[in-house]
Amino acid sequence: MPEPTLTVLALLALAGLTAGFVDAVVGGGGLIQLPALLLGLPGATPVQVLATNKLGSICGTSVSSLTYYRRVRPDPRTFAPLMLLAFVGSALGAVVASHIPGSAFDPIVLVALLVVGAYVLLKPELGEATALRYGGRRHLGAAVGVGLVVGFYDGALGPGTGSFFVFALVGLLGYSFLEASAKARMANWATNLAALCVFVPQGAVLWKVGLVMGLANLLGGYLGARTAIARGSGFVRVLFVVVVGAFVVRIGGEGLGLWG
User: Fold this and answer.
1) Number of domains in the chain
2) Which residues lie below 8 Å from residue 61, measured CB to CB, with a gap of 6+?
């Protein structure tokens, strides 16, 4: 594959900055970063694009996770098992990533996003404050299930993972949008790390591109986490709906052949 030009690298860095900001608030940075990689690196294989995206993303999730942890102080009894099972699920997903076409996921993901977006819009009080639905083992079991399922999806494909984590933590477990975003970033960091543990030995990562996007993603992640903490759950909820809506438009448009 030919080396990308400085112009392409600059545009990919801009995409990484924007993706890092969005991902830190509600997830869904892959909606920006993956298409940018596909456009900027037409000669790359799908696995190389996925692997390079993970390298860029883990830089942003690292700084946003640390920022959330220091300022929100999420409960480790939830985020620790969530991260562990998200890691396992992502590693399993990454192993099968090269064997499952992305088109197989699109109809399922589109329906899931439509349900998620409609549910949030129809329940304006959802996620305003933390009101846990389960306690003890049931809470732990729900967190473990979310980590495993969403983690597998992230390793196999990826875009929208953070948004699915946020919705599951709000809708299923009962966290506020802000607390859910904090835990989602930690889980997303674990899924990125697991996928890289599979992709790096395969030689799939394009390091130059990934590190350039990673530095930009890191800055975006820091700014996004600080903004979400300062603005609160209301801001996170609005951006969540916008990102999910954009995702629906993109996947739905691809299915209808409106764009590639």
Assistant:
1) 1
2) 23, 24, 185, 188, 189, 192, 221
How large is the greatest C-alpha to C-alpha distance in the chain, in angstroms?
54
**Cα separation, 155 vs 94, whole angstroms:** 4
- 260 belongs to a structural domain: no
Per-residue pLDDT tens digits for 211-238: 999 999 999 999 999 999 999 999 999 9
Q: How far apart are CA 87 and CA 160, in angstroms?
A: 16
- Alpha-carbon separation of residue 251 from 15, 56, 130, 155, 165 (angstroms): 19, 22, 31, 19, 19
> Helical H runs in 97-232?
106-122, 136-156, 161-167, 177-199, 207-231
Domain that holds residue 134: 6-255
Q: Is residue 49 part of a domain?
A: yes
Inside any domain, residue 1: no
Average predicted confidence (pLDDT) for the chain: 89
Is residue 202 a part of any domain in this protein?
A: yes
CA distance 184 to 83: 9
Name the stretches of the chain with pLDDT < 70: 98, 100-106, 259-260
